[in-house]
Amino acid sequence: MKKLMLGNEAFARGLFEAGCKVVSSYPGTPSTEITEEAAKYDEIYAEWAPNEKVAMETALGASIAGVRSFCGMKHVGLNVAADPLYTAAYTGVNGGVVIAVADDQGMHSSQNEQDSRHHAIASKVLMLEPSDSGECKEFVKTAFELSEQYDVPAIVRMSTRVAHSQSIVELEDRIEPEMKEYVKNPQKYVMMPANAKGRHVFVEERTQKLIEYAEVSPLNRVEISDSAQFGVITNGAAYQYVKEALGDKASVLKLGIVNPMPVKLIQDFAAKYETVYIVEELDGIIEQHCRNIGMTNIKGKEVFGYIGELPQSVIAQKLLGETKEYTQLDDNIPVRPPVMCPGCPHRGLFYCLSKNKITVSGDIGCYTLGAAAPLFAVDTTICMGASISALHGFNKARGAESEHKTVAVIGDSTFMHSGMTGLVNIAYNDSNSTVIILDNSITGMTGHQQNPTTGKNLKGDPAAAVNLEELCKAIGIKRVRVVDPYHLAETEAAIKEELAADEASVIISRRPCALLKYVKHNPPVAVDTDKCIGCKMCMKLGCPAISMRDGKAVIDHTQCVGCGICQEQCKVGAIK
Asked: Quick check: pTM over 0.70?
């Protein structure tokens, strides 16, 4: 049976067919749907973990127990999970371990462009990279086999384009491998120095065996064209762009194994052509490998650069001198910048911060949009959980000058991910800092996943819910209060009071995401144009439902959810 599937959906199908038993992940675009799809198979236990490190450690524990396991994350999530990954390269596996890391070339939904192949090289683990949905499924199955055969964690590198594009997938039955016996083996699994020294020898020997496998593996494919003008070595989504842009004008070596890479296979292919182009997105990993093995007839980053995606038009222009648009639309579609939704509970909170000219240490999530016009409320955004730690450092550096006019903002899911330790640091080191937890009762920006504060697990079943107020108090914060960000006066007063205090405090800004299905909205509000004086106070909120027409405010009733904060803004009572 054949089916059209997204790359992430096909990846999950590969987990199912390979007999994977345990899945633990943290949501992160563009990897999220892998775990959501895997959870639909009753044969797989699937969960959302509080963060990527916990997810990988869970998968490793299941592997040591003897079953095939998986954890998924986006590229920056692998930074969080790097600690267990690098040591797991030494311990190896029992049941196979597959790790999905989805890179985001072009930064469609990320704070940086990070090439995860560096992690595979540095940790000395296997990394495969599919180019379409069919390969996603097959590469996952092969990754489990290779993981067990070579005693190595196997990373499957995805990208936004492969994860979120569709192609044909051949569906097959699930093969349920027997649970492997767990045998106590401290020399393999207890990584104290004496044992780790021996395992490092194993890692280097394993790498040589994997290189030998890469020389003959069908995952690395040579496609010779009799009319080729030159050769191309490529991988991942770039392979699809190369084939469409160049056709039979180039012979192609497609690398499905991107760590470790073959030597002789590449040298033999390159020897056939005067010039070989390396077409790879982001860093020159393949190019550097080629130079390391003595190749001098290659061109790579001096042609294509290190930034963003390499679409067909770029490849055709660089290699053939053709100026050709591969996507042509008749209409000029206006740009739609990211914006907080109508009724977003974060809007009122950010308006209060912006109005009072408060410095804001920001974090990763929907609330990052508070940095955009017209609020311009966020001063910094580094990585998940950094807002609280950075606030502490900022205040320790500047002292009383900043303590009473600087806050950190962080979402409920991000607080559970990596914000708690920052708050512990504030309490432990007596930091006069104010932290605002934006509790919208869900993990918002990645698509409404549950988290440890929501009271539901991945499948929507009842689960233990972390009480944020009690947790903050247990950490050592004495001043903890809850506000409703739809009530601007209450919210503003709370911010001023907590900033004025001479001790650490937490404000929980609590209101469910406006897009949650169970949220009941008020009727939309409307503008009485006879009363409207065109002062544009309502426009300062940045609500996409509000605009100006003929000098008067206009509210789009199809977008408005009746949150009412614009009514609070209107001093002449024109919004009803």
From this structure: yes
